[in-house]
Write a structure and sequence with these properties.
This protein is an alpha+beta fold. About 35% of the residues lie in helices and about 20% in strands.
């Protein structure tokens, strides 16, 4: 990659011998705030044709978007109309440090400030280049929030943030390079997803073909009833926010919060419907929040049932589907604790359990380990990408000593 950065450096030196001009957001862009149409007016949300982007769109579909997960009716538009295609949305409140390039006319919610390039600069700046440089803006936003109970970016200073305006030839060369990095990363992500699906299929097949008795989960396991009441002792704490999605582990925090005590080898399940695919087999003792169920094999069965086997079983699509089907509640459905313990679990002899565990652990290491397999390669590729992106987007300022 050194030759790539050297090429851009030489191009900048050739085309911008005096350095690159930087201009503030308030000069380059018209800024508008996103908004959420009134939820009490059902007509705004029926038969919608206007794309309405939220943070969920970025998390689900990435940073270059042409379709939204949700749409609103044209009657919900304010006087200013839709935001134009080619604009950048930047998260400036709540979840800060995210942005996206939107390639359709659209609306977005109030978390975002919309950067609309002014007409006089449309021939000077590429939307894709602005998208890539907005990663620099993301870091600036994270470092420049106002001090209040609700995180938000200091908008006066935000409008003073400067974008470089190198010649289009340089912008296009940088975009081409970064697009290649992005595509390579996407290929790895697709391979990881394919391996994960293969793993899930193989895991489910192993459990489906077991020829052994099935017993209710509650006949050999129970929920932890031990509670930490003293709020002075610091201990490992796990809430649903600490559990990683799709069974990829957990990052406990240190806290004095009271809660349900878990022990090493207990299985912790997220118990709110959006987090039902969050699960961790504890590698230490600690305390869990009320939104996390702590499942423990009863002492009298501990020599006959492997906690690692039970972990893989509860990660199966059969159990997850069962859990989702029996979850209940309105705005935030939760798993049905009674029904969970009624789940019919296949329990083969311990030797067969270990055979299944050995097979699935190998798949697990390939797909979810932080130190080996595809995730490690993907993390290394992302780190490399971010490093070279920063290098490619660093320009000498006009008027500075070269």
């Amino acid at each position: 990659m050194a030759e790539v950065t050297n090429y851009i450096d030489s191009l900048v030196a050739e085309l911008c011998p005096d350095g690159v001009e930087y201009r503030p957001i308030e000069e380059l862009f018209t800024t508008r705030n996103g908004y959420t149409p009134s939820k009490s007016n059902s007509s705004y949300w029926a038969n919608g044709t206007v794309p309405w982007f939220r943070m969920e769109d970025i998390r689900e579909n990435g940073g270059i978007l042409s379709k939204s997960l949700q749409s609103v009716h044209e009657s919900a538009l304010k006087k200013g109309g839709m935001f134009p295609s080619g604009s950048i949305i930047v998260a400036t409140s709540a979840t800060i440090g995210e942005h996206a390039l939107i390639n359709v006319d659209f609306l977005c919610n109030q978390r975002f400030t919309v950067l609309i390039l002014k007409d006089e600069f449309k021939n000077l700046l590429s939307p894709k280049f602005l998208y890539y440089y907005s990663f620099v803006l993301d870091r600036w936003c994270l470092a420049n929030t106002t001090q209040s109970s609700f995180a938000s970016v200091d908008m006066k200073r935000f409008k003073k943030f400067e974008f470089p305006v190198p010649p289009l030839e340089i912008q296009e060369a940088i975009v081409e390079i970064l697009d290649k990095f992005t595509n390579l990363e996407a290929e790895l992500e697709a391979e990881l997803e394919a391996r994960t699906l293969q793993y899930e299929y193989y895991r489910d097949s192993l459990f489906e073909t077991l020829n052994c008795p099935r017993n209710p989960l509650g006949s050999f396991a129970q929920y932890s009833k031990d509670r930490k009441k003293d709020d002075s002792t610091v201990t490992a704490y796990v809430g649903v926010e600490n559990l990683k999605s799709d069974f990829q582990g957990c990052t406990p925090t240190e806290s004095t919060n009271p809660g349900v005590i878990f022990r090493k080898d207990d299985i912790l399940l997220g118990n709110i419907r959006p987090y039902l695919r969050k699960m961790w087999r504890a590698d230490s003792d600690g305390v869990a929040s009320p939104d996390v169920l702590v499942v423990r094999i009863r002492d009298e069965f501990s020599e006959n049932i492997s906690s690692r086997y039970l972990y893989h079983l509860l990660a199966s699509n059969e159990f997850v589907g069962y859990n989702v089907a029996h979850s209940r509640g309105g705005k935030m459905p939760r798993g049905n604790k009674t029904k969970i313990l009624e789940f019919e679990a296949p329990i083969p002899p311990l030797e067969e359990q270990q055979r299944i565990v050995d097979i699935l652990d190998r798949f697990d290491a390939l797909t979810t380990s932080l130190s080996e397999g595809l995730p490690a390669e993907l993390a290394a590729r992302r780190s490399q990408y971010e490093y070279y992106r920063d290098q490619l987007l660093s320009f000498p300022r006009k008027g500075e000593n070269q």
